[in-house]
Amino acid sequence: YLRNRLLPVMTFASWTRPLNDTELAAYGGQLDWGLTPADHAGTTVRMTQDRRLIIRNTYKHVPKYGKSTSDAMRESVRDDHRRAFLARFPQLADVPFSHTWGGVYAISRNFTNFFGELEPGVFASACDNGVGAAWGTISGTLLAEMAVGGDSAQLRDIQTVTGMPSLNPPEPFLGLGVRSRIRLAAWNSRSEL
To answer: Which residues form the FAD dependent oxidoreductase domain (predicted)?
Structure first.
């Protein structure tokens, strides 16, 4: 289903260990907030209730999910995150990251989500285009409604705004294009990184 229509991408984040009282005083801000950049390739910054700062700003094309990542890639990502962290919180230069991780999601070349019946009795909501929690919650609920024959204004709305992700070109053109587009987005967002 949806073969050659989805682009697997990973986004990465790093977070600190919980700040101690001295570090929290040096930070000087409040807890439990998050900022998402206007530019999708910019930096997301969050402060958790348990005093951890999170930096997220790196995307990678991962055509073979498990084989497209490595410890060296994660170290490079962590270094990028460290630079973004220090640009925002130089007073916390001694606070290390405790974890760096990545998660995969799907985007499409035409930024279209799929929602509907793939074949009789097989339903799917796919290609969140970077808004997985929001998209998954809403579309999953409406997909269940659709599967049992329900009808609502929200179901009709989601059917109106979704469609079919466009076909991808074959490799190596796909990988070259995706990596180039990610680099261009990072370059355009460099002031937000």
So the answer is: 4-146
Query: What residues have CB less than 8 Å from 50, skipping those under 6 apart?
Result: 18
Look at residue 167 in the predicted model and tell me its pLDDT. Answer: 95
Q: 153-161 and 132-147 helices cross at what angle (nearest 10)? A: 120
Write the burial class of residue 43 (CB in 10 Å: 0-12 exposed, 13-18 middle, 19+ buried): buried
Q: Is the distance from CB of 10 to CB of 62 less than 8 angstroms?
A: yes
**Cα dihedral sign, 78-46-57-61:** positive
Taking the CB of residue 106, how many other CB atoms lie within 10 A of it? Answer: 19
Express each pLDDT in 51-64 by its tens digit. Answer: 999 999 888 888 87
Q: Which 8-state DSSP code applies to residue 147? A: H
Closest CA to 15 of 77, 104, 106, 64: 77
What pTM was computed for the model?
Answer: 0.78
Q: What is the pLDDT of residues 160-184, one digit of tens each?
A: 999 999 999 998 898 898 888 888 8
